[in-house]
Amino acid sequence: MSQIDEFYGSFIDGRMASATGADIFESYNPANGEVLTTIQAGGAAEVDEAVASAKAAFPAWRDMPGVEKGRILLAISEKIKENTDRLVALESLDNGKSRMDAQFDVMTSARYFEYYAGVADKLAGETIPLGETHISYTRSEPFGVTAHIVPWNAAFQQAARGVAPALVAGNTAVVKPAEDTSVTTVELAKIALEAGLPPGVLNVVTGLGKDAGASLVSHPGVGRVTFTGSVPTGQEIMRASAEHLNPLTLELGGKAPNIIFEDAPIEAAIRGSLMAININAGQVCAAGSRLLVHRSLHDEVVDGLVELNRKVVLGPGTSDATMGPITTAAQYQKVQEYLQIGKDEGAQVAIGGNVATGEGLEGGQFIEPTIFTGVDNSMRIAQEEIFGPVLSVIPFETEEEAVAIANDTKYGLTAGLWTQNLGRAHRVAAQIEAGQVSVNDFFAGGIQAPFGGYKQSGFGREKGMHAVSEYLQTKTVSMKLS
Protein backbone atom coordinates (compact mmCIF):
# COMPACT_ATOMS: atom_id res chain seq x y z
CA MET A 1 0.00 0.00 0.00
CA SER A 2 1.42 3.40 -0.97
CA GLN A 3 -1.76 5.48 -0.98
CA ILE A 4 -4.48 6.00 1.62
CA ASP A 5 -7.75 7.89 1.72
CA GLU A 6 -7.42 11.55 0.83
CA PHE A 7 -9.29 12.72 3.94
CA TYR A 8 -9.79 11.58 7.52
CA GLY A 9 -12.28 13.47 9.64
CA SER A 10 -13.86 13.19 13.05
CA PHE A 11 -15.94 10.04 13.50
CA ILE A 12 -19.00 10.93 15.55
CA ASP A 13 -22.21 8.97 16.16
CA GLY A 14 -21.19 6.33 13.63
CA ARG A 15 -20.36 8.71 10.77
CA MET A 16 -17.15 10.30 9.52
CA ALA A 17 -17.22 14.00 8.82
CA SER A 18 -17.31 15.14 5.22
CA ALA A 19 -14.33 16.91 3.70
CA THR A 20 -16.69 19.50 2.25
CA GLY A 21 -16.25 22.77 4.09
CA ALA A 22 -14.07 21.25 6.81
CA ASP A 23 -11.05 23.02 8.19
CA ILE A 24 -8.15 20.71 7.37
CA PHE A 25 -4.41 20.28 7.79
CA GLU A 26 -1.94 18.04 6.02
CA SER A 27 -0.41 14.91 7.52
CA TYR A 28 3.01 13.79 6.27
CA ASN A 29 4.75 10.47 5.73
CA PRO A 30 7.81 10.72 8.02
CA ALA A 31 9.78 8.33 5.80
CA ASN A 32 9.87 10.71 2.81
CA GLY A 33 8.28 14.02 3.83
CA GLU A 34 5.45 13.69 1.31
CA VAL A 35 1.84 14.61 2.10
CA LEU A 36 0.04 11.42 3.10
CA THR A 37 -3.50 12.65 3.68
CA THR A 38 -5.52 15.56 4.99
CA ILE A 39 -7.06 15.61 8.47
CA GLN A 40 -10.07 17.53 9.74
CA ALA A 41 -9.02 20.24 12.18
CA GLY A 42 -11.82 19.66 14.64
CA GLY A 43 -12.34 21.90 17.63
CA ALA A 44 -14.85 22.81 20.31
CA ALA A 45 -17.88 22.27 18.05
CA GLU A 46 -16.84 18.75 17.14
CA VAL A 47 -16.03 17.97 20.78
CA ASP A 48 -19.47 19.17 21.83
CA GLU A 49 -21.05 16.94 19.20
CA ALA A 50 -18.95 13.92 20.15
CA VAL A 51 -19.61 14.26 23.88
CA ALA A 52 -23.34 14.70 23.23
CA SER A 53 -23.32 11.56 21.08
CA ALA A 54 -21.46 9.60 23.76
CA LYS A 55 -23.84 10.82 26.47
CA ALA A 56 -26.87 9.81 24.42
CA ALA A 57 -25.43 6.34 23.80
CA PHE A 58 -24.36 5.82 27.41
CA PRO A 59 -27.56 4.57 29.11
CA ALA A 60 -28.19 1.76 26.63
CA TRP A 61 -24.53 0.71 26.58
CA ARG A 62 -24.27 0.83 30.38
CA ASP A 63 -27.37 -1.32 30.77
CA MET A 64 -26.49 -3.85 28.08
CA PRO A 65 -25.79 -7.24 29.70
CA GLY A 66 -22.10 -7.91 30.16
CA VAL A 67 -22.16 -11.00 27.99
CA GLU A 68 -23.45 -8.95 25.06
CA LYS A 69 -20.80 -6.27 25.58
CA GLY A 70 -18.20 -9.03 25.61
CA ARG A 71 -19.42 -10.46 22.33
CA ILE A 72 -19.16 -7.05 20.67
CA LEU A 73 -15.63 -6.50 21.98
CA LEU A 74 -14.65 -9.96 20.76
CA ALA A 75 -16.10 -9.12 17.34
CA ILE A 76 -13.98 -5.95 17.28
CA SER A 77 -10.91 -8.07 18.02
CA GLU A 78 -11.74 -10.43 15.17
CA LYS A 79 -12.41 -7.55 12.79
CA ILE A 80 -9.00 -6.05 13.62
CA LYS A 81 -7.37 -9.38 12.82
CA GLU A 82 -9.25 -9.58 9.51
CA ASN A 83 -7.84 -6.15 8.59
CA THR A 84 -4.32 -6.78 9.88
CA ASP A 85 -2.45 -6.26 6.61
CA ARG A 86 -4.22 -3.00 5.83
CA LEU A 87 -3.85 -1.65 9.37
CA VAL A 88 -0.16 -2.54 9.47
CA ALA A 89 0.41 -0.71 6.19
CA LEU A 90 -1.55 2.34 7.38
CA GLU A 91 0.30 2.53 10.68
CA SER A 92 3.64 2.18 8.89
CA LEU A 93 2.81 4.96 6.46
CA ASP A 94 1.27 7.30 9.01
CA ASN A 95 3.65 6.72 11.90
CA GLY A 96 6.80 5.46 10.18
CA LYS A 97 6.96 2.24 12.20
CA SER A 98 8.79 -0.73 10.78
CA ARG A 99 6.50 -3.47 9.56
CA MET A 100 7.52 -5.60 12.55
CA ASP A 101 6.65 -2.87 15.07
CA ALA A 102 3.37 -2.06 13.32
CA GLN A 103 2.42 -5.74 13.20
CA PHE A 104 3.06 -6.01 16.93
CA ASP A 105 0.89 -2.97 17.64
CA VAL A 106 -2.03 -4.20 15.55
CA MET A 107 -2.02 -7.69 17.05
CA THR A 108 -1.69 -6.24 20.56
CA SER A 109 -4.70 -4.03 19.87
CA ALA A 110 -6.74 -7.05 18.87
CA ARG A 111 -5.60 -8.78 22.03
CA TYR A 112 -6.81 -5.88 24.21
CA PHE A 113 -10.36 -6.26 22.94
CA GLU A 114 -10.14 -10.04 23.23
CA TYR A 115 -8.85 -9.87 26.81
CA TYR A 116 -11.45 -7.39 28.03
CA ALA A 117 -14.23 -9.23 26.21
CA GLY A 118 -13.63 -12.06 28.67
CA VAL A 119 -14.03 -9.67 31.60
CA ALA A 120 -17.37 -8.22 30.54
CA ASP A 121 -19.71 -10.56 32.41
CA LYS A 122 -17.49 -10.98 35.47
CA LEU A 123 -17.61 -7.51 37.02
CA ALA A 124 -19.23 -7.59 40.46
CA GLY A 125 -19.35 -5.81 43.78
CA GLU A 126 -18.96 -7.19 47.28
CA THR A 127 -21.10 -7.72 50.35
CA ILE A 128 -20.01 -6.24 53.67
CA PRO A 129 -21.06 -7.83 56.98
CA LEU A 130 -22.77 -5.32 59.29
CA GLY A 131 -24.34 -7.74 61.74
CA GLU A 132 -27.78 -9.33 61.70
CA THR A 133 -29.77 -6.11 61.44
CA HIS A 134 -28.19 -4.54 58.36
CA ILE A 135 -26.74 -5.49 54.98
CA SER A 136 -24.31 -3.52 52.90
CA TYR A 137 -23.04 -4.12 49.39
CA THR A 138 -21.10 -2.28 46.71
CA ARG A 139 -21.86 -1.57 43.09
CA SER A 140 -19.20 -0.83 40.46
CA GLU A 141 -20.58 1.80 38.12
CA PRO A 142 -19.14 3.54 35.04
CA PHE A 143 -18.34 7.25 34.95
CA GLY A 144 -20.25 7.97 31.75
CA VAL A 145 -18.23 9.63 28.99
CA THR A 146 -14.49 8.99 29.12
CA ALA A 147 -11.95 11.10 27.24
CA HIS A 148 -8.81 9.55 25.79
CA ILE A 149 -5.89 11.66 24.55
CA VAL A 150 -3.72 9.33 22.45
CA PRO A 151 -0.02 10.00 21.64
CA TRP A 152 1.60 9.80 18.22
CA ASN A 153 4.15 7.07 18.94
CA ALA A 154 1.69 4.15 19.13
CA ALA A 155 -1.63 5.54 17.97
CA PHE A 156 -3.58 2.37 17.19
CA GLN A 157 -2.35 0.31 20.12
CA GLN A 158 -2.80 3.04 22.72
CA ALA A 159 -6.27 3.91 21.51
CA ALA A 160 -7.22 0.26 21.97
CA ARG A 161 -5.43 0.11 25.33
CA GLY A 162 -7.65 2.82 26.78
CA VAL A 163 -10.90 2.28 24.93
CA ALA A 164 -11.29 -1.47 25.51
CA PRO A 165 -11.34 -1.38 29.35
CA ALA A 166 -13.40 1.83 29.35
CA LEU A 167 -16.08 0.21 27.20
CA VAL A 168 -16.17 -3.07 29.10
CA ALA A 169 -16.73 -1.07 32.29
CA GLY A 170 -19.85 0.41 30.66
CA ASN A 171 -18.54 3.83 29.69
CA THR A 172 -18.76 5.47 26.29
CA ALA A 173 -15.66 7.12 24.84
CA VAL A 174 -14.37 10.12 22.93
CA VAL A 175 -10.82 9.79 21.59
CA LYS A 176 -8.55 12.62 20.43
CA PRO A 177 -5.60 11.17 18.49
CA ALA A 178 -2.38 13.08 17.97
CA GLU A 179 -2.60 15.32 14.93
CA ASP A 180 0.44 13.67 13.35
CA THR A 181 -1.02 10.14 13.53
CA SER A 182 -4.81 10.27 13.33
CA VAL A 183 -5.45 7.73 10.58
CA THR A 184 -5.61 4.43 12.42
CA THR A 185 -7.64 5.79 15.34
CA VAL A 186 -10.38 6.77 12.90
CA GLU A 187 -10.03 3.33 11.32
CA LEU A 188 -10.51 1.73 14.76
CA ALA A 189 -13.81 3.57 15.21
CA LYS A 190 -14.97 2.44 11.77
CA ILE A 191 -13.99 -1.17 12.50
CA ALA A 192 -15.79 -1.09 15.86
CA LEU A 193 -18.99 0.10 14.18
CA GLU A 194 -18.73 -2.66 11.56
CA ALA A 195 -18.27 -5.19 14.37
CA GLY A 196 -21.55 -4.17 16.01
CA LEU A 197 -20.62 -1.43 18.46
CA PRO A 198 -23.62 0.92 18.64
CA PRO A 199 -23.16 4.40 17.12
CA GLY A 200 -22.00 6.96 19.65
CA VAL A 201 -20.31 4.51 21.99
CA LEU A 202 -16.90 5.27 20.42
CA ASN A 203 -16.27 8.67 18.87
CA VAL A 204 -13.08 10.22 17.49
CA VAL A 205 -12.36 13.94 17.20
CA THR A 206 -9.39 14.79 15.00
CA GLY A 207 -7.59 18.09 15.34
CA LEU A 208 -4.84 19.97 17.13
CA GLY A 209 -4.17 19.52 20.82
CA LYS A 210 -4.65 23.20 21.60
CA ASP A 211 -8.12 23.12 20.05
CA ALA A 212 -9.73 19.68 20.10
CA GLY A 213 -7.64 18.27 22.94
CA ALA A 214 -8.05 21.24 25.25
CA SER A 215 -11.80 21.37 24.58
CA LEU A 216 -12.19 17.67 25.32
CA VAL A 217 -10.34 17.49 28.65
CA SER A 218 -12.14 20.57 29.98
CA HIS A 219 -15.60 19.58 28.75
CA PRO A 220 -18.22 19.45 31.53
CA GLY A 221 -19.81 16.36 29.97
CA VAL A 222 -16.67 14.24 30.41
CA GLY A 223 -16.50 12.06 33.52
CA ARG A 224 -12.93 10.74 33.32
CA VAL A 225 -9.76 11.53 31.39
CA THR A 226 -6.91 9.27 30.27
CA PHE A 227 -3.77 10.81 28.79
CA THR A 228 -0.46 9.45 27.54
CA GLY A 229 2.24 11.94 26.64
CA SER A 230 4.72 14.45 28.03
CA VAL A 231 4.95 15.71 31.60
CA PRO A 232 4.18 19.38 30.70
CA THR A 233 1.06 18.42 28.76
CA GLY A 234 0.01 16.09 31.57
CA GLN A 235 0.28 18.98 34.01
CA GLU A 236 -1.88 21.15 31.74
CA ILE A 237 -4.49 18.40 31.57
CA MET A 238 -4.49 18.10 35.37
CA ARG A 239 -5.19 21.79 35.65
CA ALA A 240 -8.00 21.61 33.08
CA SER A 241 -9.56 18.54 34.71
CA ALA A 242 -9.49 20.20 38.12
CA GLU A 243 -12.29 22.51 37.00
CA HIS A 244 -14.72 19.58 37.08
CA LEU A 245 -12.76 17.43 39.57
CA ASN A 246 -12.41 14.72 36.94
CA PRO A 247 -10.28 11.71 37.91
CA LEU A 248 -7.28 11.05 35.69
CA THR A 249 -5.00 8.34 34.43
CA LEU A 250 -1.71 9.90 33.35
CA GLU A 251 1.07 7.89 31.70
CA LEU A 252 3.87 10.35 31.15
CA GLY A 253 7.58 10.29 30.39
CA GLY A 254 10.28 7.81 31.25
CA LYS A 255 14.04 7.43 31.52
CA ALA A 256 14.16 3.75 32.30
CA PRO A 257 17.24 2.18 33.89
CA ASN A 258 18.29 -1.19 32.48
CA ILE A 259 20.85 -2.87 34.75
CA ILE A 260 23.28 -5.58 33.65
CA PHE A 261 24.88 -7.20 36.70
CA GLU A 262 28.13 -9.15 36.58
CA ASP A 263 26.26 -12.48 36.71
CA ALA A 264 23.85 -11.60 33.89
CA PRO A 265 23.07 -13.97 30.99
CA ILE A 266 25.28 -11.80 28.85
CA GLU A 267 24.20 -12.64 25.30
CA ALA A 268 20.50 -12.32 26.16
CA ALA A 269 21.22 -9.10 28.05
CA ILE A 270 22.96 -7.51 25.07
CA ARG A 271 20.19 -8.48 22.65
CA GLY A 272 17.46 -7.46 25.03
CA SER A 273 19.09 -4.16 25.90
CA LEU A 274 19.41 -3.16 22.25
CA MET A 275 15.78 -4.04 21.60
CA ALA A 276 14.81 -2.03 24.69
CA ILE A 277 16.15 1.19 23.14
CA ASN A 278 15.73 0.58 19.41
CA ILE A 279 12.10 -0.56 19.42
CA ASN A 280 10.00 1.92 17.42
CA ALA A 281 13.18 3.98 16.86
CA GLY A 282 13.34 4.65 20.60
CA GLN A 283 9.98 6.42 20.56
CA VAL A 284 8.63 4.53 23.55
CA CYS A 285 8.14 6.06 27.00
CA ALA A 286 9.14 2.72 28.55
CA ALA A 287 12.34 2.40 26.50
CA GLY A 288 15.48 1.29 28.33
CA SER A 289 17.41 4.46 27.55
CA ARG A 290 19.90 4.28 30.46
CA LEU A 291 22.01 1.12 30.39
CA LEU A 292 23.77 0.54 33.70
CA VAL A 293 26.55 -2.02 33.22
CA HIS A 294 28.82 -3.59 35.83
CA ARG A 295 32.27 -2.23 35.14
CA SER A 296 33.74 -5.74 34.63
CA LEU A 297 31.40 -6.25 31.65
CA HIS A 298 31.37 -2.73 30.26
CA ASP A 299 33.60 -3.18 27.22
CA GLU A 300 32.12 -6.57 26.32
CA VAL A 301 28.59 -5.20 26.46
CA VAL A 302 29.39 -2.07 24.46
CA ASP A 303 31.22 -4.08 21.79
CA GLY A 304 28.28 -6.45 21.52
CA LEU A 305 25.78 -3.60 21.25
CA VAL A 306 27.83 -1.88 18.56
CA GLU A 307 28.08 -5.09 16.55
CA LEU A 308 24.31 -5.63 16.68
CA ASN A 309 23.61 -1.98 15.92
CA ARG A 310 25.58 -2.26 12.69
CA LYS A 311 22.95 -4.74 11.50
CA VAL A 312 20.04 -2.33 11.96
CA VAL A 313 18.47 -1.47 8.60
CA LEU A 314 16.92 1.98 8.36
CA GLY A 315 14.11 2.65 5.93
CA PRO A 316 10.40 3.28 5.38
CA GLY A 317 8.09 1.15 7.47
CA THR A 318 6.63 -0.40 4.34
CA SER A 319 10.05 -1.78 3.35
CA ASP A 320 12.02 -4.57 4.97
CA ALA A 321 13.72 -2.09 7.30
CA THR A 322 14.14 -2.95 10.97
CA MET A 323 13.96 0.69 12.11
CA GLY A 324 11.79 3.45 10.73
CA PRO A 325 12.01 7.24 10.92
CA ILE A 326 11.26 9.63 13.77
CA THR A 327 7.54 10.24 13.50
CA THR A 328 7.20 14.02 13.83
CA ALA A 329 9.31 16.89 12.53
CA ALA A 330 9.49 18.45 15.99
CA GLN A 331 10.73 15.21 17.55
CA TYR A 332 13.28 14.74 14.75
CA GLN A 333 14.72 18.14 15.58
CA LYS A 334 14.69 17.38 19.31
CA VAL A 335 16.66 14.14 18.90
CA GLN A 336 19.27 15.95 16.81
CA GLU A 337 19.64 18.53 19.56
CA TYR A 338 20.24 15.81 22.15
CA LEU A 339 22.88 14.18 19.96
CA GLN A 340 24.76 17.45 20.07
CA ILE A 341 24.12 17.91 23.79
CA GLY A 342 25.65 14.49 24.48
CA LYS A 343 28.77 15.35 22.51
CA ASP A 344 29.04 18.74 24.20
CA GLU A 345 28.73 17.12 27.63
CA GLY A 346 31.74 14.96 26.89
CA ALA A 347 30.09 11.61 26.21
CA GLN A 348 31.79 9.43 23.59
CA VAL A 349 29.92 8.16 20.55
CA ALA A 350 30.48 4.42 20.21
CA ILE A 351 28.26 4.26 17.12
CA GLY A 352 25.84 6.57 15.35
CA GLY A 353 25.44 10.09 16.58
CA ASN A 354 24.15 11.67 13.38
CA VAL A 355 21.24 12.09 11.04
CA ALA A 356 21.04 9.03 8.80
CA THR A 357 21.44 9.53 5.06
CA GLY A 358 21.70 7.23 2.10
CA GLU A 359 19.70 5.50 -0.57
CA GLY A 360 16.01 5.19 0.33
CA LEU A 361 16.24 7.69 3.18
CA GLU A 362 15.86 10.86 1.10
CA GLY A 363 13.42 13.34 2.60
CA GLY A 364 12.87 11.15 5.66
CA GLN A 365 13.38 11.82 9.35
CA PHE A 366 15.96 9.13 10.09
CA ILE A 367 18.44 9.05 12.98
CA GLU A 368 21.37 6.67 13.25
CA PRO A 369 20.88 4.34 16.23
CA THR A 370 23.30 5.83 18.72
CA ILE A 371 25.26 4.58 21.74
CA PHE A 372 26.96 7.03 24.09
CA THR A 373 29.63 5.80 26.52
CA GLY A 374 31.48 7.73 29.21
CA VAL A 375 28.11 8.93 30.48
CA ASP A 376 27.62 10.25 33.99
CA ASN A 377 24.08 10.08 35.36
CA SER A 378 24.11 13.83 35.97
CA MET A 379 24.37 14.54 32.23
CA ARG A 380 21.28 15.79 30.43
CA ILE A 381 21.32 12.81 28.07
CA ALA A 382 21.00 10.59 31.18
CA GLN A 383 18.33 12.66 32.92
CA GLU A 384 16.06 13.95 30.15
CA GLU A 385 13.77 11.92 27.93
CA ILE A 386 15.15 11.95 24.38
CA PHE A 387 12.52 9.72 22.76
CA GLY A 388 14.76 8.44 20.02
CA PRO A 389 17.25 5.59 19.39
CA VAL A 390 19.86 7.06 21.74
CA LEU A 391 21.35 4.89 24.50
CA SER A 392 23.46 6.14 27.41
CA VAL A 393 25.81 3.54 28.93
CA ILE A 394 26.74 4.12 32.59
CA PRO A 395 29.18 1.88 34.50
CA PHE A 396 28.73 0.87 38.17
CA GLU A 397 30.65 -1.13 40.75
CA THR A 398 28.18 -2.41 43.36
CA GLU A 399 24.54 -3.38 43.62
CA GLU A 400 23.91 -0.44 45.94
CA GLU A 401 25.44 1.97 43.44
CA ALA A 402 23.34 0.53 40.62
CA VAL A 403 20.13 1.02 42.59
CA ALA A 404 21.13 4.57 43.54
CA ILE A 405 21.84 5.49 39.90
CA ALA A 406 18.64 3.80 38.72
CA ASN A 407 16.51 5.84 41.13
CA ASP A 408 18.34 9.11 40.50
CA THR A 409 15.78 10.50 38.05
CA LYS A 410 12.45 12.30 38.22
CA TYR A 411 10.86 9.47 36.23
CA GLY A 412 9.70 6.05 37.40
CA LEU A 413 7.84 4.24 34.64
CA THR A 414 9.76 1.03 33.90
CA ALA A 415 13.06 -0.63 34.67
CA GLY A 416 14.95 -3.77 33.74
CA LEU A 417 17.61 -5.90 35.35
CA TRP A 418 19.68 -8.84 34.20
CA THR A 419 20.99 -11.34 36.73
CA GLN A 420 20.97 -15.07 37.37
CA ASN A 421 20.84 -14.52 41.13
CA LEU A 422 17.24 -14.99 42.22
CA GLY A 423 17.75 -13.25 45.53
CA ARG A 424 19.30 -10.22 43.85
CA ALA A 425 16.47 -10.11 41.31
CA HIS A 426 13.80 -9.86 44.03
CA ARG A 427 15.88 -7.54 46.20
CA VAL A 428 16.68 -5.02 43.47
CA ALA A 429 13.18 -5.13 41.96
CA ALA A 430 11.80 -4.18 45.37
CA GLN A 431 14.14 -1.17 45.62
CA ILE A 432 13.62 0.25 42.13
CA GLU A 433 11.28 3.25 42.04
CA ALA A 434 9.25 2.31 38.96
CA GLY A 435 5.79 1.02 38.20
CA GLN A 436 7.00 -2.00 36.26
CA VAL A 437 10.25 -3.97 36.56
CA SER A 438 11.31 -6.73 34.17
CA VAL A 439 13.96 -9.34 34.94
CA ASN A 440 16.02 -10.95 32.14
CA ASP A 441 13.59 -9.70 29.46
CA PHE A 442 13.09 -5.95 29.29
CA PHE A 443 9.45 -5.87 28.13
CA ALA A 444 8.32 -8.86 30.18
CA GLY A 445 4.91 -7.51 31.25
CA GLY A 446 2.04 -8.45 28.93
CA ILE A 447 -1.35 -6.82 28.54
CA GLN A 448 -2.55 -8.67 31.65
CA ALA A 449 0.04 -6.91 33.85
CA PRO A 450 -0.79 -3.44 35.25
CA PHE A 451 1.29 -0.65 33.75
CA GLY A 452 1.87 2.88 35.04
CA GLY A 453 4.32 5.21 36.66
CA TYR A 454 5.88 6.46 39.85
CA LYS A 455 7.02 10.05 40.42
CA GLN A 456 6.71 12.25 37.31
CA SER A 457 5.91 9.28 35.11
CA GLY A 458 2.30 9.71 36.17
CA PHE A 459 -0.31 7.80 38.11
CA GLY A 460 -3.13 5.35 37.58
CA ARG A 461 -2.74 1.98 35.90
CA GLU A 462 -3.50 0.68 32.45
CA LYS A 463 -3.60 -2.95 31.28
CA GLY A 464 -4.93 -5.92 33.19
CA MET A 465 -7.83 -5.82 35.61
CA HIS A 466 -6.39 -2.71 37.22
CA ALA A 467 -7.34 -0.78 34.08
CA VAL A 468 -10.99 -1.77 34.42
CA SER A 469 -11.06 -0.49 38.00
CA GLU A 470 -9.77 2.87 36.72
CA TYR A 471 -12.98 3.22 34.70
CA LEU A 472 -15.36 2.25 37.51
CA GLN A 473 -16.52 4.12 40.60
CA THR A 474 -17.76 2.39 43.73
CA LYS A 475 -21.18 2.94 45.24
CA THR A 476 -22.04 1.51 48.67
CA VAL A 477 -25.65 0.57 49.43
CA SER A 478 -26.59 -0.15 53.06
CA MET A 479 -29.99 -1.03 54.42
CA LYS A 480 -31.66 -1.98 57.66
CA LEU A 481 -33.36 -5.35 57.44
CA SER A 482 -36.13 -4.73 59.97
Protein described:
With 482 residues, this protein is an alpha/beta fold. The chain has helices at 44-63, 66-82, 84-95, 99-117, 155-168, 183-194, 209-217, 231-242, 266-278, 298-309, 329-344, 380-383, 399-407, 422-431, 464-470, and strands at residues 7-8, 11-12, 15-16, 24-28, 35-40, 127-129, 134-142, 145-150, 172-177, 202-204, 224-228, 248-251, 257-260, 290-294, 348-351, 370-373, 390-396, 411-412, 414-418, 436-439, 454-455, 458-459, 472-480. The strands form 6 sheets. It has a 7-stranded mixed β-sheet, with helices on both faces. It has a 6-stranded mixed β-sheet with strand order 10-9-8-11-12-22, with helices on both faces. Strand 6 (127-129) and strand 7 (134-142) form a beta hairpin. The longest helix is centred in the first third of the chain and has 20 residues, at 44-63. The model has no long low-confidence stretch (mean pLDDT 96).
- The portion of residues forming beta strands comes to 15-25%
The CATH architecture of the largest domain can be named as 3-Layer(aba) Sandwich
- In total, the number of strands is 23
**CA-to-CA gap between the ends?**
70 Å
The CATH H-level superfamily of the largest domain is Aldehyde Dehydrogenase, Chain A, domain 1
Weakly predicted, low-confidence segments: none
Given the structure, what is the number of helices?
15
* Overall geometry: globular
CATH topology call of the largest domain: Aldehyde Dehydrogenase, Chain A, domain 1
> What count of structural domains?
2
- The helix content is 25-40%
How would you classify the helix and strand content by structural class?
alpha/beta
Reading off the top of the CATH hierarchy, the class of the largest domain is best stated as Alpha Beta
Identify the strand order in the major beta sheet.
15-16-17-14-13-19-20
Mean pLDDT: 96
Report the biggest beta sheet as strand number plus sense, adding barrel if it closes: 7 strands, mixed
- Assembly form of the protein: single chain
Task: Supply Rg.
Answer: 23 Å
